Amino acid sequence: MATHATPTFEDFVGDGADAFRATFDLFPEPLGILASVRGDSGAIVDFLTLWGNQALEELAGMPLNVEPRPLLIADVAPSLRDIGQFDAYCRVVETGIPYADEVEFDGDVGPPGRRIIGIFKVGINKLGDGFVAMWRDVTALVRAEEAIEHLAAIVESTDDAIVGADENGVITAWNAGAERLLGWSREEIVGRHVGTIVPRDERPSQRARYENLLKGGNVERFETHWVRRDRTLIDVVLTASAVRDRNGTIIGASAVVHDITELKRIQAELTRSNAELEQFVAIAAHDLREPLSSISQFAALLERFNNDDLDDRGREIIENIQRGTRRARNLLDGLREYSRVGREQPTREAVDLTLLLEGLLEMIGPALREAQATVHIQPLPTVLGDEAELSRVFQNLVLNALKFRAEHPPAVHVTATRETGGWLLCVRDNGVGVSERDRERIFEIFSRAHGDSVPGTGIGLAVCHKVVSRHGGRIWVEAADGGGSAFLFTLPDIVAETAEAG
């Protein structure tokens, strides 16, 4: 195929061949010298490897400086023809114009079945009737740059403000979210002190947090105020972290800032509405009890002084009046109990659930004895919570077991299981159970799965749901093995005792 004698490495490098090898054999980047192989027409048909350094041999996966020398395109990397590299190499030899490009490569290299996927920075310079070339693997660098660009796009597109500052508190980074939230453009604010966006009275506390962060300490997520360009204050929740250089040295800090102004407004409105509702319930409960008592008393007097004149129908009417007033009073008492839960944050104190339940069972002992009920308690954990509120949960669940009992005497089992993330409490009974369609709605206020067939107000389980939710848990009901219901509720780690608690 070739029309000329095969050149040697020395033909290209001359007397400096040994010095060239000594200089570049240990060069970290793949480097090689290749000679043109021309056909009868004089056109380049392939390239012959005259020499390759150790890095090139590692890239090729085969020795290159042995006889017979392999042809680069045909024997070492045939895929170079498919991606246009062969033509580029030919142009360098024919024109003498150097070539440099970043090339994505996916193909066979070296021994059969060996495949390389990567991105290479290719540099080619003419040398005699051939060229000297370097192939630098920049895959990791390109992927890192792409990742940085992707991260930068996320930072710029997020609605939250992302702000960076150096160790002196000078703002160094300001994303588009910060521009939208705080009103300053990047050009206006970068280079100014972070105190520009912090209210004067909060600067000492925020400066203390910043200094702690620069010393390697932690800064928990916290709520604060920041100052907009128009000098108005906004409520924000801020998460800060240290910024380190490549050596791990802290050189500043960054913060992700989320606007909670609207959330705060809604919370304030809900607090006001709840306060008004609680006040209304308290007033209504107080003011309605007096006329209800009067109705009950007048019904009793009517029955007492006109007993001889009343027929069965009259006595039935009076009994309905008394039953209605009793139910109304019970509803009012239930509403007051429901409104009291949530008026303030639950107390966070150690509560021994075993002692709590034992005291509760003693208090409701007459009801248990009347129903011939038994309650079995497995050792229960000590938790952090509101003793009075947790007592309401157990009281309502145990009394429900008595109220919704089957034909046999009620049997209640109270157990606790340690789970990942907290405790799982279970109050299981052997009563009539709850149908699957009612298992969610029974926790809604005034909801009664059994209608008027069983006395009740439909408030007890709503109170349980409210209390458990306030303690960071959830409550639900399942069918118990052997019949009845299993009411389960969780208390997360933030309220559960630790292994060291005594």
Describe this structure as you would to a colleague.
- The structure is a single chain.
- With 502 residues, this protein is of the alpha+beta class.
- It has four domains: 9-142, 2-Layer Sandwich (Beta-Lactamase); 158-259, Beta-Lactamase; 264-340; 349-492, 2-Layer Sandwich (Heat Shock Protein 90), CATH 3.30.565.10.
- The chain has helices spanning 9-13, 17-24, 54-60, 72-76, 85-95, 139-157, 176-182, 186-189, 203-214, 261-305, 312-340, 353-363, 365-370, 387-403, 460-470, and strands at 31-38, 44-52, 99-108, 115-126, 130-137, 161-166, 171-174, 222-227, 233-244, 250-259, 349-352, 374-377, 382-385, 411-419, 422-428, 475-479, 485-492.
- The protein has a five-stranded antiparallel beta sheet with strand order 2-1-5-4-3, with helices on both faces. The chain has a five-stranded antiparallel beta sheet with strand order 7-6-10-9-8.
- Mean pLDDT is 82; it is low at 495-502.
Our estimate of the beta-strand percent is: 25-35%
Question: What is the subunit arrangement here?
Answer: single chain
Average pLDDT level: 82
CATH class of the largest domain: Alpha Beta
By CATH, the topology of the largest domain is Heat Shock Protein 90
Q: What's the total number of strands?
A: 17
End-to-end gap: 90 Å
Put simply, the count of helices is 15
What coarse outline follows from CA principal-axis ratios? elongated
CATH architecture of the largest domain: 2-Layer Sandwich
Helical fraction equals 25-40%
Largest beta-sheet details = 5 strands, antiparallel
Look at the structure and name the CATH superfamily of the largest domain: Histidine kinase-like ATPase, C-terminal domain
Radius of gyration: 41 Å
State the domain count.
Answer: 4
Structural class: alpha+beta
The main sheet orders its strands as 2-1-5-4-3
